[in-house]
Amino acid sequence: MSSAFKIVLLAILIFLGKAEQAHAQKGPSTKYKCMIQMTNYAGEGAYIVISLIDPKGAYEKTLYVMGPDKKWYKSLKEWDKFRTKKPANISAITGASITGGDRSVNTIEIENSKVNSGYKIRFESAVEDKEYHTKDVEIPLTTEGLSSKSDGSGFIRYVRFSAN
Amino acid sequence: MTISIWRYSHLALAVSSFLFLALASLTGIILAFQPISEKIQPYRSENFDQADLSQVLPVLRSKYPGITDISVDANEFILVNGSDEKGEKLSVYVDPLTGKILGTAGEKNEFFEWVTGLHRSLFLHEAGRFVVGLTAFLLVLITISGIILILQRQRGVKRFFAKIQRDHFAQYYHVVTGRLSLIPILILALTGTFLSLERFGLFNTTFKSQEIDFDALKSGPPANISDFAIFKKTKVSQLQSIEFPFSQDVEDFYTLKLKDRELTVNQITGEVITQTAYPLPLIISKLSLNLHTGRADGIWAAVLALASANILFFIYSGFTITLRRRSNRIKNKFKADQSEFIILVGSENGSTFYFASAIHQQLIAAGKTAYLTELNSYTHYAAAKHIIVMTATYGLGDAPTNAAGFQAKLIKYPQTGPIDFSVVGFGSHAYPDFCKFAFEVNNLLAQQPWASPLLEIYTVNDKSPEQFNQWAADWSQHAEVPTTLSAGPLKPRQQRKQPMLVMNTTQVHSNGEAFLIRFRPKRRQKFSSGDLLAIYPAADHRERLYSIGKIGKEIQLSVKLHANGLGSTYLARLKAGDSIQACLLQNPDFHLPPNVPAVLMICNGTGIAPFLGMIDQLSPKTNAHLYCGFRGEASFQLYKQALEESRTSNKLNGLHIAYSREGRKEYVKDMLERDRSLIADVLVSKGVIMLCGSLSMQNNVSTLLEQVCQNQLGKSLSYYQSRSQVLMDCY
């Protein structure tokens, strides 16, 4: 077989595979404990959203929201666009906002098929009157990424995961 | 009008902040119910106070393997966070010793969250927070100026909680509740201000945990969690929260946040890795939040709710007071130099103006030219014939703010024509210096060569309309204003005339002679020597007042016959058995106090009348002296027998008589001059000095008394007058 054919075949297989995944409402998934350690900033509690980002860099799913008051969601600009375009019930995955210096441990659920498939996990953060960090932390959704400590660039000092 | 700097500040601050203050108070009342509503939940364990971490942590770890942290809230509820065996989120209140679930942590109450947002920032973000913070700061200033105003009003720190004079509802409760809630309000305002300043970064409350040297962490020897020394000595009650190690790796550790510091603990060995005390601003910040919200104590939260409600009442009552005060502003129809009647007012909070305005309006209605102003505005009055001074007393017998400059101006502007004056003092017997300033003004005026007293000084206790109307009636009689003045809408004096039977009367032959006449009221009525009998010689509005002496059950008057005297000619015509209509008026300001240790009775002419009655009632324990002045022995003859009997029966310890036209030709004042030390002794021993007779006698004696008081006692005469130790009833 020519290499060109191989590539086409692979592309078709991937496409089919993806289509199949898309149709299956929910594949097998794993729960992870996700710990966010904040920096020592002064001020109000930070609103943080954990999102699943697809290989093209687009939002695919909201994994967790730290911050209960909808009126502040617009300060998380990029995610808010996704949220308003594709409304989803996030009440089960919403918790309290986190203040400077604090730690928050939450459980997030990720489909096994998304791991090591080019997806990313994004942590974006905003504080009422302070700056907004679209990618405070963004880590590749790989086995390695889920086992190491990832430093943040904004209000988050670092993020860690562990299998539940 | 009469605004001191503190009152002005108090008002200006309140006016500039009341809208936001009202909003903050209203939301504050609602928010006080948040801690109260939380505390009634049964999530607080009985074991809370004694449990220590070495007991609690093993239990909770084995019961909740997915535990990530424990926190203790202001209600002393212990909250376990983590995940359950299925990996679902777990957030429950537990008993620290058994691990039993006491309740599930609910969502935050949206209503309270919404109200909190309004309270903190008016939903206006930073601008709103700034406004609310500024309002809190203004409230601090309002409270401080309010405390100073109470101190001024109550005359000092010691009398801070003494009785408050009641002017009207708004004023009274503004002060009464102000005293009670100033502490919680000051705390609310200070903590609110602090929290705002902190919010704007004026205090650095950030906290940095110490860096951990991960290379130095020991991975052994392993110890059991229940044997960790630090857990053994730390009580749950000291705890804010514990974060559990994220994994079993030695680099993960326990983080203990206590009330005052943060610790990290090696999860294998139990060693304390780092220990960092919280900075002071952070501790103050937490304390401020506790005090401001009442979250730590339900009773305090209730106190804060009351204090907030009180702020709303202050806004209402404060504006009521201000509006009342503004409505008392002076509106003059006539100019000062055109007016025959000058009314001078000394008032701290404006209430005396109410009485003054009533008189002012009634004089104008009667077709007179009258001018109303403050004592401080005293000047030369070209057309004045009468001066009326109505004044309150402020502080420790001081002048009210708008009368403080009167004394200087009185000397600066001598009046040209002769002027009759009358002083009405307003005050309350609740204070020691009753009407002291009014007495001072009266004494000052009496010393002016152009001024002559139309009446004795009158005092009005606690705004008594009866007392005021008594002055008004007497004054209008003397000033010959053909109308009955009264305190505005208040009814003029109730003239309850009653029939009096003439019992006997002494003979009178010629003008200038005095006679005694006795009445018996046909109806039973209580009266004392020193009270007044009003008679109506022409059966019209004209009345004449006589001081009475009570002899047995009878009223005795001493009257001097004047050729054209309306009253005296009328009385002289009466015979035993006649009946007249008259009115008995109480005059408690000139009663002999019961059980008084010493009394000096000073009189001239017919002023002896009340003393004749008082001597009759004297207790033998009282050291009593009578000083009386007559023209000559003939005038004294009328009283001689009765007085000499009193002298021999020792009711009177001293009888001193001066004749102005015979013998040594001396006056009462000259006898008193020799007995200066007796005067001083009587005043020091809480005795009283009573004067009855002509105003010129009173003037001379007052001058002498003032000298004795100043030189021998170091106090002013008005000091003793305000304490009812010097009583005067002259005409």
Describe what this molecule looks like in 3D.
The complex is a heterodimer of chains A (164) and B (731). With 164 residues, chain A is of the alpha+beta class. Chain A has one domain (28-163): Immunoglobulin-like (Sandwich). Chain A has helices at 3-23, 77-85, and strands at residues 29-38, 46-53, 59-66, 94-95, 103-111, 120-127, 132-140, 150-151, 156-163. The longest helix of chain A has 21 residues, at 3-23. Chain A starts with a helix and ends with a strand. The model of chain A is unreliable at 19-24 (pLDDT under 50). The radius of gyration of chain B is 39 Å and the shape is elongated. In chain B, the strands form four sheets. An eight-stranded antiparallel sheet of chain B has the order 4-3-2-1-5-6-7-8, with no helix packed on it. Helices cover 40% and strands 21% of the residues of chain B. Chain B has 731 residues and is of the alpha/beta class. In chain B, strand 19 (549-551) and strand 20 (554-560) form a beta hairpin. Chain B folds into five domains: 5-40 and 115-194 and 292-324, no CATH class; 51-96 and 208-278, no CATH class; 330-478, Flavodoxin domain (Rossmann fold); 495-588, Translation factors (Elongation Factor Tu (Ef-tu), domain 3), CATH 2.40.30; 592-731, 3-Layer(aba) Sandwich (Rossmann fold). The A-B interface holds A 31, 33, 35, 40-43, 68-69, 95, 100-101, 103, 105-107, 109, 128-129, 160, 162, 164 and B 66, 68-69, 81-83, 87-89, 107-108, 113, 125-126, 199, 201, 204-209, 243, 246-247, 255. Chain A: This is DUF2271 domain-containing protein. Chain A: Keywords: Signal. Chain A: Residues 1-24 form the signal peptide. Chain A: Pfam families: DUF2271.
Shape of chain A: globular
- Biggest interface and residues each: A-B, 22 and 26 residues
The number of E-state strands of chain A comes to 9
What Rg of chain A is obtained from the alpha carbons, in whole angstroms?
17 Å
User: How would you sum up the major sheet of chain B?
Assistant: 8 strands, antiparallel
Distance between the termini of chain B: 35 Å
Low-confidence stretches of chain A: 19-24
Query: How large is the radius of gyration of chain B?
Result: 39 Å
Oligomer status: heterodimer
The arrangement of helices and strands of chain A along the chain is HEEEHEEEEEE
Total strands of chain B: the figure is 26
C-alpha geometry of chain B: elongated
CATH architecture of chain A: Sandwich
The biggest beta sheet of chain A reads: 5 strands, mixed
Structural class of chain A: alpha+beta
Report how far the terminal alpha carbons of chain A are from each other. 45 Å
Structural class of chain B: alpha/beta
- Biggest sheet: strand arrangement of chain A: 4-3-2-6-7
**Approximate strand percentage of chain B:** 15-25%
Poorly predicted spans of chain B: 488-492
